[in-house]
Please model this.
Amino acid sequence: MRAHVLAGVLTAATGLLTAKAQAVPLPTIEFEAGPLASVPVTTGSVSAAGISVTGAPLIGSATQSILRFGGTVTLGVFNPLQVRVTEFKLTTLGTLSSFVFAISGVLPASSSVSWSAYVDPTNTPFGTTDLIGSNSFTDPSSVISLGFSDTVPQAGSVTGPFALTELLTISAPVSDSVSFNSSITTSAPVPEPATIGLLGVGLVALGLVASRRRAGGAGTA
Model:
């Protein structure tokens, strides 16, 4: 009888987990470079115009996400060139506590890059509700290429579905190339020491209960 009851409980639990997994939305990426636009993809990666975008589920996950964006752009008719990427339908199991935005690259002579990164708690594609990082880089030299980099940590609070968006404006002499790599990382809060202590106490208590049950079973035998 107990075996049948246990089997029924496991079946029900498996069904609930499956339904929950199916209910979780798939993180979706869109990408635009000038007039070029990608269709929404849920495979975690899209590439075009010398640029690659990678996100969940290939790296990170829907609950602890990493959006990577970079490549080499050669300037042509559209100059300055506006590039933007978004990853939406990201979800959290709890409140996210921080975002870290990082960018680095190489500017050819007489070029510039401006960038900004946003988190949108309304889960809107290309949403720009909350700015989490921005900067501008310029190479005023007419003969020398310059490297650039920046890292911006930013406290945040997101408790439901949200979107990450990154915008770049690239300007350079026609036929010159600008290379860059960037990422947006999100993380969940670290448990407080008190929480960890309570978890330890709970585990010890469960161990004592299991031991007493085993001892009681041996005595009745």
